[in-house]
Amino acid sequence: MATHHLASWSHNLRYSSLPPEVIHAAIKTFYNWTGCAIGGSNHPAKAIAYKTLSPFFGKPTYSLLGRHHDADGGAGGYKSVDAQHAALINGIASHVHHYDDTHLDTIIHPAGPVASALLAVAEWKGSETKISGKDFLLALVVGVEAECKLGLAVWPEHYDVGWHITSTTGSIGAAVAVSKLLGLSIEQTSHAIGIAATQVIGLREMFGAHTKSFHPGSAAQSGLMATVMAQGGYTSSLQALEAKRGWVNVVGATKSTDELQADLDKWLGIGATIGEQDGVGLPDGATGRWEILRNSFKPYPCGIVIHPIIDGCSQLHHDLKARGLSGHDVASVHARVHPLVLELTGKPKPRDGLEGKFSFYHGAAIGLLYGKGTPSQYEDSVVQDPEVIAIRDRIQGTADRSLNADETRIVVMINDGQVLEKHVVHAVGSLEVPMDDKALEMKFKDQCMGVLGEKVDTASQECWGIEIVEDVRSIVKSLCT
Amino acid sequence: MATHHLASWSHNLRYSSLPPEVIHAAIKTFYNWTGCAIGGSNHPAKAIAYKTLSPFFGKPTYSLLGRHHDADGGAGGYKSVDAQHAALINGIASHVHHYDDTHLDTIIHPAGPVASALLAVAEWKGSETKISGKDFLLALVVGVEAECKLGLAVWPEHYDVGWHITSTTGSIGAAVAVSKLLGLSIEQTSHAIGIAATQVIGLREMFGAHTKSFHPGSAAQSGLMATVMAQGGYTSSLQALEAKRGWVNVVGATKSTDELQADLDKWLGIGATIGEQDGVGLPDGATGRWEILRNSFKPYPCGIVIHPIIDGCSQLHHDLKARGLSGHDVASVHARVHPLVLELTGKPKPRDGLEGKFSFYHGAAIGLLYGKGTPSQYEDSVVQDPEVIAIRDRIQGTADRSLNADETRIVVMINDGQVLEKHVVHAVGSLEVPMDDKALEMKFKDQCMGVLGEKVDTASQECWGIEIVEDVRSIVKSLCT
User: Fold this and answer.
1) Between B58, B197, B236, which is nearest A58 by CB?
2) Which residue of B has its CA nearest to A200?
3) Residues in domain MmgE/PrpD N-terminal (chains A, B) (predicted)?
4) With b meaning 16 or more CB within 10 Å and e meaning fewer, what string describes A22-53?
5) Which among B465, B468, B462, B466 has a CA at the least distance from the CA of B480?
6) How far is CA A29 from its chain centroid?
7) What class does CATH assign to B2-297+438-479?
8) To probe the interface with B, which of A43, A178, A206, A244 has the most B CB atoms within 10 Å?
9) Of A82, A229, A245, which has the smallest distance from its Cβ to B205's Cβ?
10) How far apart (Å, rounded) are the C-alpha atoms in residues B232 and B210?
11) d(C-alpha B388, C-alpha B352), whole Å
């Protein structure tokens, strides 16, 4: 029943049933995704995908976000491709800096697969029937709910065995979202779910290579493809998720069939329904919740366990500044952190930007010196800067099991003998201390400035205003160079 | 090491190292695949895929085999699409009648993913550099070996849990084959294997729907895409198959990591090498065998367990004819078969062609009446023909555990009181009684006649002659209308 229930829930949900906070969460999710896709638009992984797949591009109906950089050093600039390849390539760009959104309960990055597919469809189909901002946001909500709830049904065994849960659930989320946007029937949506479910994309073994960013892009493409095929009558199973040899049982790893069935019913079955036609919003019951409200945004483009130290050191940067001092005046830093932090990111001497993303020490250094950790602080030149290295070498970390993973206690000794202390209880970007709209806007502009230049303010305004636009295509223009 | 070893084995293998019987098996594999792709070219599943995906088609560089039929009843005719969609759509067509080749040890249908990708590439790239028949056959061999050996490493748990092993191994086989055809380096081939491995396509839950035929097509497309991306520098893992969170461990189901590693080494590691540069052919050792020599061809377009009864009844048809009698003179038929036959195909009153493919009784009836079981005998009109039904209703089956799955003992009582008996020890199409070239040619012509008309003889000759052509594109022309 889970497949049918997901399809009928999605089909029946109205915009008027979305609580205001859900709409705002959807806008933030879209806004953050757009910034990441633009910010990642000049990454080599995207350029290679564009170049190698260009012999297959169909009629250009969709603008690639940001600015294209040719893989072979050519002129680049504005590029338009067919909707399928757009979904793939924007999906790659949006994930390539590891800066996109995170549903912390499942560590799914929900926007990549769903928004990449939706925006491509909105521009492709917009010439026939305008797709409004409200239509777009509603589809984004159903897609995010679908992938995160599916993820919860198989978490954590599915991730533990080695699946990249963002894309394995993402193709299905994208199919549900595109089905909603294109107005598929409940039965057609079920077939779309099936065709998407049979394409299971993403092994964790690919982490560290370009192929990691391929995952959300490929999920977006697969979900889009599944939906247009289902709309045209291509048949699948109507029990693709719950059947004995269907999705959850095949990819559910060591979880038993009974457990999987119970979790699937809990998260996607009857009773798990939220926001149905009556518009009453959240019902009672533990599962009657909107996952999109639990979607978080990364303030820093690096492993999430490094966030507390960057947060704390950035605050210390401002404390030092208030005293007329800077990071250069620091004699030593001692930080106590959860053991996992040093286990995963205890790299004392990172050699380049990518290694810097896995270095607790580099995170502390840029926090103290710059008061922030944006993609600029992860460029090779910064990681190799002697001034950064000098501070990095004065930092010590100690594992402390009494701390949470998003917590840190920092003691800074200044050259003049003063001592400063900082206790970060929850790092910014956690559910407890989310990035507010202003912080998200700074992140957007910081990512997009180098790509869009003076258009960045317009782009930001247009994205914030998506709810009121009559034709989503009008936004896309401001997001490209 | 398995990923590297597969890549280097494939990279280093020369045509001169292929034993003559391997070359002949490759030709038969290509020949049979071509017939199936042409024979399936007018199936609705293919027409829907073509119509729904046409908005995304790129520059038409590849001819779709056979004859295109429009999903909406339009003119159809000759169609050309980009190589990626060609791989997908020809792959769908080649599998849609369940008539393609079978590697019996793993029940992989090897040609679909590999040949669909290769022929698309041969025509796409042929305008730059001609691809000869020998190049094509060599690439076909490495692709088939790759997928079947990978399949052996995860068999049977991988299939049992619900993966459609044809396509899950097929994307990797296609990537290895296309890498060989395009001359990728060992490292590039490893990256191609990784990008293909991260796209795991095919749940068995889709059996019975159009999506089953999507699987080999999608595997062909994914493998092709992976290879062109890897050739252009898109990076993946170099241990995609054997890593802790790599392909075999993630999709190996209940098989333990140690078992999987041992099986991977057995089938794909050092020591499993065949036909390396010295051209000596098969080395010693149980695993030093060519899987393509174990590829079999279906004489009948239906479940393989029905083959013995069709085989036996077809022989009885000729025995009756020799006596001046026909199926109409049969009073009763009693067949003893392996219990699985009745369990899987014990449908006494099939309603249409598709149900007929799962009916032991229909199989016996068409054998007696027509002396053959070709796609024509599985048309709705035949399954619903009162004359066929009259004979079908005189057939009884009894499960007999002492028989093999490809064996049957048949007793026929004729109206005049005579009794005929037939013992099929191994059904035709098994490894023991393979379809010979002549039978394969009859199958090809039977499938293709309705599509190609008078061109069918030329098409057959061209396909048999692939080894000596200098440009594979020259063959393709004869395979389209």
Assistant:
1) B58
2) B200
3) 5-256
4) bbbbbbbbbbbbbbbbbbbbbbebbbbbbbbb
5) B462
6) 8
7) mainly alpha
8) A206
9) A245
10) 33
11) 12
* Strand partners for A409: A336, A423
Q: Which residue out of B234, B247, B257 would a mutagenesis test of the A interface target, given it has the greatest number of A Cβ atoms within 10 Å?
A: B234
Report yes or no for ipTM above 0.90.
yes
**Residue A369: both structure tokens together:** 């010196």
Residues of B in contact with A236 (CB under 8 A): 206, 209-211
**Considering only the top CATH level, what class is A2-297+436-479?**
mainly alpha
CB contact under 8 A, A209 and B235: yes
Strand extents, DSSP E, B298-354? 330-337
Q: What contacts B9, CB < 8 A, 6 or more positions away?
A: B142, B273, B276
- Yes or no, beta carbons of A232 and B199 under 8 Å apart: no
| A110: preceding bond cis by omega (within 30 degrees) | no
Domain ranges, ordered by start, for chain A:
2-297+436-479, 304-424
What is residue A68's DSSP assignment?
Answer: B
Q: Would you call A210 and B53 a contact, using CB atoms and an 8 Å cutoff? A: no
Domain at A304-424, CATH from 3.40.50.300, 2.30.110.10, 3.30.1330.120, 3.40.630.30: 3.30.1330.120
Phi, psi values for residue A88, rounded to 5°: -65, -50
Q: Does pTM surpass 0.90?
A: yes
Q: In a structure prediction context, what are the per-residue pLDDT tens digits for chain B, which is 481 residues long? A: 899 999 999 999 999 999 999 999 999 999 999 999 999 998 999 999 999 999 999 999 888 999 888 888 777 888 999 999 999 999 999 999 989 999 989 999 999 999 999 999 999 999 899 999 999 999 999 999 999 999 999 999 999 999 999 999 999 999 999 999 999 999 999 999 999 999 999 999 998 899 999 999 999 999 999 999 999 999 999 999 999 999 999 999 999 999 999 998 888 876 666 665 433 333 333 346 899 999 999 999 988 889 999 999 999 999 999 999 999 999 999 999 999 899 889 889 999 988 898 899 999 999 999 999 988 899 999 999 999 999 999 999 999 999 998 999 999 999 999 999 999 999 999 999 999 999 999 999 999 999 999 999 999 999 999 999 999 999 998 999 8
Structure tokens at A219: 């999920």
With beta carbons under 8 A apart, name residues in chain A contacting B53.
225, 228-229
CB contact under 8 A, B161 and A235: no
Q: Work out the burial of residue B42: count CB atoms within 10 Å of its CB; fewer than 13 is exposed, 13-18 middle, 19 or more buried.
A: middle
Contacts of B3 (CB under 8 A, 6+ apart): B190, B193, B194, B237, B238, B239, B240, B241, B242, B246
